[in-house]
Amino acid sequence: MSRKEDFINDKRRISYLGATYSRIYRGQSVLIEGDYGVGKSRFLKLLRPKKLHAVRVESLFNIHETLAAILKELNYDTKATYRRTPEYLRMVCSLSSCFIVIDEANDIDPRVWPYMKRIIDAGVSVVFAGLPKVRTYLTSEHPDILSRLKTLVLYPIVVEDFGVCAYLSLNIRISIRKPLNKYIW
Ligand SMILES: Nc1ncnc2c1ncn2[C@@H]1O[C@H](COP(=O)(O)OP(=O)(O)OP(=O)(O)O)[C@@H](O)[C@H]1O
Ligand SMILES: [Mg+2]
Questions:
Q1: Ligand number nearest to the C-alpha of 44
Q2: How large is the average pLDDT for residues 166-170?
Q3: What is the distance in A from the centroid of ligand 2 to the CA of 95?
Q4: Class of residue 70 by CB neighbours under 10 A (exposed 0-12, middle 13-18, buried 19+)
Q5: Of 12-16, 30-34, 110-114, where does mean pLDDT reach its minimum?
Q6: pTM (2 decimals)?
Q7: How far apart are the C-alpha atoms of 31 and 127, rounded to whole Å?
Q8: Is 89 exposed, middle or buried (0-12, 13-18, 19+ CB in 10 A)?
Q9: Which of 55, 71, 100, 104 allows an S-S link to 126, with CB 3.0 to 4.6 Å?
Q10: Cα–Cα distance between 86 and 96 in angstroms, integer?
Q11: Centroid of ligand 2 to alpha carbon of 146 (angstroms)
Q12: How many angstroms separate the alpha carbon of residue 144 from the centre of ligand 2?
């Protein structure tokens, strides 16, 4: 079975995809939250709007590397250095036609979050995905940032046996293909 064929889209995932696209197109940001293995990374891969470029950034980078990597992905000739960081921050804040995707947001360095706030406030959409501890951390350390994010909580798909799995997979593929296509511009 190919990766595309075995993908299960429950109602929640479909509605989350719609909500995420709608936020991205309005320049607003999202936090995809879920425990290990619920499908956060897989969900992020679904985000491929035709009119906007998805800039995927490594969450382990420091702020100099993060800003330089975002711009590099958009074909700017950049060097990760603290001297250029103020200029790069301004450039990232003025980007249009793209949105930023950061998986494993639980690994983001505490010093990077205030920069994320500037980017979010500039209207550049950022889609974060991470473990529930991201929300716990933001609740205590950056409630201002959390208030700017729409949090979508993913839960595992529970399939009891192969029969149910085949039933789910088949029915969901037949009935959901149309609504899903709606979001791919
Ligand atoms: N909707 C889905 N239908 C079928 N398989 C899925 C779906 N979502 C995820 N999977 C599969 O479940 C496994 C875990 O998914 P994924 O890596 O996206 O989880 P994750 O939430 O990012 O986990 P982690 O927190 O460890 O990074 C993968 O093998 C993936 O292919
Ligand atoms: Mg993952």
A1: 1
A2: 43
A3: 26
A4: buried
A5: 12-16
A6: 0.86
A7: 6
A8: middle
A9: 100
A10: 18
A11: 20
A12: 25
